[in-house]
């Protein structure tokens, strides 16, 4: 290195270009890279949820301890995935979040385009299915076995509305207040809490719901229960966006 060449540390210190925050879709990342991040991230998330559920049932017969192990693994896994892949794709891993971003973009806010929506959602669904199959393979379970865990009760469906509405309120509330840098901790913490305070144990994610139908284990959901769960999640997303509009209403300036 010559005397006229800047040191590497100086170059790093001088880099003041804005970095994308988790939850915000980075505009300059190639779409194929973002799709890959959504697929891999959703697959890893479902593998964590399903795998930790299988592990928990093998270690104890206490359902409370099983749920504690499952929720704890999900909190840590989700936080790491958001921190890692947020700067690439926004770390949605969730069609409800992607749809909400697309809707806000149509209303003049930041978000994904229709083309990005058409790429993200299939990537998330394929990733979720792959994650469930991977978890089953790691624990010697049948690679694909439809779940027999019925979750069709009305109180569980209400729980999905609440869980999804809270998730959307959190993510878009952080965006409205310029605090998306807290997304890895905040979103993971919310999901961990919602495991316990919602009757449905907080799926709050259509892709994950589909993926979990492919495994007849602790985290599974019967295919017959999937459509109603997804319907309630979409209703929850609408409720969440409505709450964002009311709670984080922007005031008018004097000129306006």
Give an overview of the whole structure.
By secondary structure, the chain is mostly helical. 65% of the residues lie in helices and 0% in strands. It has helices at 8-14, 31-59, 63-89, 95-106, 114-138, 154-176, 183-197, 206-212, 226-247. The chain is globular, with a radius of gyration of 20 Å. The protein starts with 7 loop residues before the first helix and ends in a 9-residue tail after the last helix.
Structure, briefly:
The chain is mainly α.
- CA radius of gyration: 20 Å
The coarse silhouette is globular
Low-confidence stretches at least 5 residues in length (pLDDT < 50)? 1-22
Classification by helices and strands: mainly alpha
Distance between the termini: 56 Å
Biased composition (Pro residues): 19-28
Organism: Streptomyces xantholiticus
Main location: membrane
Membrane topology: Multi-pass membrane protein
């Amino acid at each position: 290195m010559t005397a006229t060449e800047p040191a590497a540390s100086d170059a790093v210190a001088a880099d003041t270009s804005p970095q994308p925050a988790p939850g915000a879709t980075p505009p300059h990342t190639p779409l194929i890279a973002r799709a890959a991040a959504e697929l891999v991230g959703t697959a890893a998330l479902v593998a964590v949820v399903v795998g930790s559920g299988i592990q928990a049932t093998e270690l104890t017969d206490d359902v409370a301890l099983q749920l504690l192990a499952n929720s704890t693994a999900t909190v840590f896994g989700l936080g790491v995935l958001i921190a890692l892949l947020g700067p690439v794709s926004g770390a949605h891993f969730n069609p409800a979040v992607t749809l909400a971003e697309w809707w806000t973009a149509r209303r003049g806010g930041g978000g994904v385009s229709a083309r990005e929506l058409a790429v993200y959602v299939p990537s998330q669904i394929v990733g979720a299915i792959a994650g469930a199959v991977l978890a089953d393979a790691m624990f010697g379970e049948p690679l694909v076995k439809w779940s027999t865990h019925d979750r069709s009760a009305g109180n569980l469906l209400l729980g999905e509305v609440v869980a999804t509405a809270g998730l959307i309120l959190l993510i878009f509330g952080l965006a409205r207040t310029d605090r998306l840098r807290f997304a890895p901790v905040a979103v993971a913490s919310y999901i961990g809490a919602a495991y316990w305070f919602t009757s449905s144990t907080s799926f709050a994610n259509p892709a994950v719901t589909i993926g979990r139908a492919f495994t007849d284990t602790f985290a599974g959901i019967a295919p017959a229960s999937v459509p109603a769960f997804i319907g309630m999640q979409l209703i929850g997303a609408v409720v969440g966006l409505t709450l964002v509009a009311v709670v984080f209403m922007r005031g008018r300036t004097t000129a306006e």
